[in-house]
Amino acid sequence: MKPCTLLFARGIAAMLCLAASLTAWADSPVANPEAVVTAGNARFTVLTPEMIRIEYSTSATFEDRATFVIQNRDLEVPQFSTTEDADFLYITTSALSLKYRKGTDPRTVPASPANLSITMAHRGLNVVWYPGKPDPLNLKGTCRTLDGCNADSKRGELENGLVSRSGWAVIDDSWTASRPDGSRSFALEHNSDLGYDWWAPRHDAHAMDTYFMGYGSDYKRAIFDFTRVAGKIPLPPDYVFGYWYSKYASYSADDYRQIMAELKQNDVPSNVMILDMDWHWNGSAESLSEGIGGWTGWSWNTNLIPDPSGLLSDIHSRGFRAALNLHPADGVNRYESADYYNAMNSDLNGKYNDGDNIAWRLDYPDFTKSFFNRIIRDHESEGVDFWWLDWQQYLVSYCTPGLGETFWCNHVFFNDMKVNRPSRRPVIFHRWGGLGSHRYQIGFSGDASINFPTLNFQPYFTATASNVGYTYWGHDLGGHMFTDEATVNDKELVLRWIQFGVFSPILRTHATKDDRIERRIWKFPNFTAMRDAVKLRYALFPYIYTMARHTFDTGLGLCRPLYYEYPDCEEAYQFENEYFFGNDILVAPITEPAGTGKAVKKIWFPEGSWWSVATNELIEGPCTIDMEFADNEIPYFFKQGSVIPFNPASVSDVTVHPDALILNVVAGAAGTGSLYEDAGDNSDYATAFGTTAFTHTVAGGNDVITIEPRHSTTSLDVNSRAWTIKVFAGSRPSAVEVNGSAIEGWTYDELSSCTTVPVSTTNCNSAITVTLVQSSPTGHVGAIDGCRHSVIYDSVTATLNARFSEPVGSAILSVRNLAGMEMLTRSYTGVTEIAEDLSNLAPAVYVCTVKADSFTNITKICK
Amino acid sequence: MKNLIITAIVAAASALQAMAGMSNSIEYTQLYIVGSATPKGWDLANADAMSPIAYGVFEWTGELKANEEFKFMNCNYAWNKHIVATEPGLYLECGNVYPLNFEASWSLSDDRDLKMRVRTTTTYTLVVDLNSMQVSVNPAATLAEWPASFYVAGSAVAGDPVELRDYYGVELRGCIDLQCGDVKLIDTPTLTASTTYYLPRFADVDITFGEGYVNRLCATADASTMGWSVLVPGAYQFYLDKASRTYTITRLKHYPVLYLVGGCCERRWNYWDESNCRFFPDPLNPDVMVWEGELRIGWESYPDGSPAEEPNRFKILTAQSWFSPTFHPYVADAPAIGATDARISGGDDLKWSIDRDGFYRLELNTRTGVLTGTYLGNEGVPARPTGIDEVTSGQTAAPVYFDLQGRRIDNPSRGIYIKLQGNRATKVAL
User: Looking at the 3D structure of chain B, how many domains does it have?
Assistant: First the structure.
């Protein structure tokens, strides 16, 4: 792509994003009448060429209000045609053909295409859908919680997602269609007293209200269009992308201060301090609150924290934000929270009161208003930044059949914060409450087991949640409770979990209340590697935050499945715990123990070339390779051509906006990137922000990186900035130019094939062009082609055969057992193939590593 | 055992937690029919469970007595989740669909506890869809008679229809490569005017639909009726169970590991001890899973002195759980040596057997479903001539010991080790 074309494309993209943002802010649940076709008791709304809403009500009472799932039906009307004959109505868009038998309920029992069908082309076939058609190829979404998860035990609980290998998916927004927790999708009506939408019964509880989405393999557009109708995924405040310290324990105020001091002393960057449930009276002796309170509590345990405001002030002064854990289900108790109880009792004139307790009735506005005014406002004025809603009780309200406690808590807490704290961004930490929960970020996945198989499930789980827009799962990194004493404080497990967390939405270590479980990472013998991982997170922040904005604009999650980009590759579905972290980074976390040796990971690389940051290799896909990673190495890969902004190593607070940034570039292919900036916790971020576009072109072997002038709609902290451009996978340039002039001071590192170019402080409104001038037109390191060479074990002859497409200067064969013990080494020179007899090795599984010049192959064999 | 207990506790705790949380929620996993109109009357604990045929969709065929009441219950251990009519005094008529209500209440008032009736005593098929909260009523459906042979046909099948092989009169089976297209089962080797088509209940449903549901074939002579669709090319396993007249079609799965358990195994039935019970894929053929090691009739008794159960038998698990699909033979005590057909789950809990102690190589081809067992002798796994310089050849070489994880042990104490001496590796107990 030519530079001018790229610039044009980026400009268009930016405008589209802005337009999308503004459009979404004007959501209307009433569709454009031109998009609506009514036929008797059936109503069809053509929302996009691929999405049609189908309603059926025996009383022709249709729903034009927002619902728990759907917020906006007023989209630009796509082109479509309507025809009919004596029996059928036909609606045709560019993608779909709908056929409806007039006068019938589109649903049949059991499901069949008799009354309504939609036909679409997919994978060369005419795929037929009808209401109720089962879909085993759905790519799934997420589930309420990972509480109790051991290995992948929650896999079966994943709800259907909005994308499928069948080419279609549906949103069943009918009130009859229960979510897995038993809750329903109510209507929403504005409550002027509270200032936000409140639940309301659906007009026809037995009506059909289904959205058919026939996007084929265009998964990304399906998700984007979902957020157009169901609301955007909000951008969380910047601080949530830093490191969270969290551990369930009876910490005193001094304990918290000590932990913050030790984080500082040990140079662990951190941004959030979590106060688990022992901040309030909980009735336990070990938290010095025996006889007062319980699971639910609203008042500070002053035996542990005598000066709550003082502690919160201290937390803030040390650069942290604070969140408190809540289990609201038991209401407000006279003995645990006398002042709050009396105040609410007065507000409510004794309503909902059973004597000593005001029951939890978030179903009702009067309770809600009093509760937030009396309790939540009070704590927020003390300095609480956000709430961890740890709902673990019954799932559906006993007062309002079908009202999901999880979803409704999400909705109310988030919107209350939005209305009553307008200068800041709303954010809650809560479980998934069903479709529509993407509007209330961020997610708390709950109490999973401490073991490698459970870690192994989480990359898949996290990326797959993008299929329902739930893109900010925060896990208990390290695991919550142990199933085997051997894994309680397994340093390798905790390290690998944190390394995964670096490339997950939220970096939060946590565990249950058990003194045997350690989560102070500086107490582990491999602390240095853990801290390096946390620091990498802080380096990644500009990229992460830019991608979070991308999520807001496009609906595409930070962690997203490979099949979004490669829907036609079977491996994109098979390698399920690999994922993309934003647009440009492929991640394949280590989720199995390595024992005493290096971890071996089989990784699929899609088409294109990928820079392995840990091993300094450029790997040419498509291929599947077994790679080795030491404890301190994380398998993450930059896409060739990409331009990825990093913070400098000095940044230890993600809310600080440095006046120097790093751009990581992988040489040899064109690409783009961007930097998104805003005030960090401003509620008007949809329109008040700045973006800086990066382009990377390759011409005549020269890599040209351009930092475009920043486009901003508001004033930003940093107006001039120094840059360090790091170009990987390139040969040593003969010269480096900045804005057309040769400069001194650049360096080249042979090991990483990296040219580092310092660019002095420049006004952000000015363009910068950096050119790496190569003396030859092929100034890039060769990619390792995982498919050009082969290493195969012949079990019949017990021979390991390696074949190279050309003679290699030197080759080394190393065979290790799974414990990392070296069983055999051989070296060779000037060979095109190796045939090594392994018959004398005991029956077992071995890892065979063949290193030949720049080629490395790792093969696991079974004898 | 410790892990098993912990896992069981975690599972039980999770289940209890889930049950408590779902106490007033509708559940899509179960449905029962109760009432004086039904064969079991109001005996909820013994009420007929309706068969799941899709997510939240249940079918029941049975006799209903005229003018007697019935309703549906969402669980059979408590009267708190009722699926009832939306109007009082409702009589259901064949061929019609009626809306339903879900009522979560321990003391449902009569005005909401709306039961249903039929006017004629006869056998009906009822289908309840909890997604749309509707019930359909029809005359009793009859199971399609099965032909002697089934052929897999359709645009997804490259070439001629493929006949499914009859395995021991128990099931019809085959693993067939399919491309994108449609699939129908037919009763003739080629399509003719008299061909009968055997199709899924749900038209055009993906061929893999049905796990966890009762899948029956619908017979028709209408060639235009839609069959299954295939949208993901690959190899598919067809299983048609003759006794129940149900079917399962799954995509061929490549297992990363399988688990050998049995009384003749070193760890007996201890699947959670992975030290010596794992099959691994053949690097050259991922369809084939390989295990090599020692089997012994009545291996040493358990530490508490109790003997191993079924001392000469084994089977193969697909996961570390008794509830996972299991490979086992069609015939009880099928010999381990030689090639035998392996069945995945279904049928009785049959096992393979050995008649002599020694070292074996077991290869399970998961595509063909054949287990091939080879007896390797009684002195260890024979090794081939070596080309590896670092390993000393000859019986006079000093033995080298490895533990069962493959770690070299210089001074082995009591226990089981792999002994490598010269070119011979044996498993020894010291």
Answer: 4
- Given CATH 3.40.50.2000, say whether it is the number of domain A790-863: no
Task: Please name the residue that has the structure tokens 């925060």.
Answer: A474
Q: Are A198 and A155 in contact (CB under 8 A)?
A: no
- The structural domains of chain A, with segments of one domain joined by +, span 9-230, 650-773, 790-863
Partners of B292 on chain A (C-beta within 8 Å) are 843, 863
More confident residue, A233 or B389: A233
According to DSSP, the residues that pair with B137 across neighbouring strands are: B126
The reply to whether B204 falls in a domain is: yes
Contact call for residues A175 and A29 (beta carbons, < 8 A): no
Q: What residues of B are in contact with residue A177 (Cβ under 8 Å)? A: 131-132
pLDDT at res. A477: 97
Q: What percent of chain A has pLDDT over 70?
A: 93
CB contact under 8 A, A111 and B408: no
CA distance B168 to chain A (A): 30
- Are B47 and B32 members of one domain? yes
Q: Is residue B144 part of a domain?
A: no
CB contact under 8 A, A817 and B407: yes
Residues B373 and B304 in one domain: yes
- Contact of A840 with chain B, judged by CB distance below 8 Å, is answered with yes
Q: Which of B338, B361, B377 is the last residue of a domain?
A: B377
pTM of the full structure: 0.89
Q: CA A848, CA A856: separation in Å to the nearest integer? A: 10
Q: Which CATH superfamily groups domain A650-773?
A: Golgi alpha-mannosidase II (2.60.40.1180)
B363-380 pLDDT, tens digit per residue, is 999 999 999 999 999 876
Residue B2 has pLDDT above 80, yes or no: no
Residue A860 has pLDDT above 70, yes or no: no
User: Residues B197, B199, B203, B209: what is their CA dihedral angle, to the nearest 10 degrees?
Assistant: -150
Give the burial class of B17: count Cβ atoms within 10 A of its Cβ; 0-12 exposed, 13-18 middle, 19 or more buried.
middle
CATH number 3.60.21 is the correct assignment for the domain at A9-230: no
**Strands A481-482, A449-450: parallel, antiparallel or unpaired by DSSP?**
parallel
* Domain assignment present for B107: yes
Nearest to B99 among A131, A206, A393 (CB): A206
Other Cβ atoms closer than 10 A to B410: 6
Give the pLDDT confidence of A401-430 residue by residue, as tens digits. Answer: 999 999 999 999 999 999 999 999 999 999
The pair phi, psi for residue B218, each rounded to 5°, is -110, 130
A interface test, pick of B53, B132, B254 with most A CB neighbours within 10 Å: B132
- What's the order of all strands across the beta sheet hosting A507-508? A473-474, A443-444, A428-430, A386-389, A321-326, A272-275, A243-245, A507-508
Question: Smallest Cα–Cα separation from A406: which of B21, B305, B37, B3?
Answer: B21
Domain that holds residue B426: 383-430
Which of B21, B385, B407 shows the shortest C-beta gap to A395?
A: B21
Centroid of chain to Cα A862 = 36
Cα of B235 to nearest chain A Cα, Å: 13
Query: Given an 8 Å threshold on Cβ–Cβ distance, is B208 in contact with A150?
Result: no
What pLDDT band is residue B342 in, cutting at 50, 70 and 90? very high
Distance from CA of A859 to the nearest CA of B (A): 9
Among residues 562-601 of chain A, which lie with CB inside 8 Å of chain B? 570
Element (H, E) at A637: strand A636-639
In a domain, residue B158? The reply is yes
DSSP helix/strand/coil, A129: strand
- B32 and B135 inside one domain: yes
Give the model's pLDDT for residue A284. Answer: 92
Nearest to B405 among A123, A818, A839 (CB): A818
Exposure string of A803-828, with b = 16+ CB inside 10 Å and e = fewer, is: ebeeebeebebbbbbbbbbebbebeb
A-chain CB neighbours of B360 within 8 Å are none
- State whether B396 and B369 are in the same domain: no
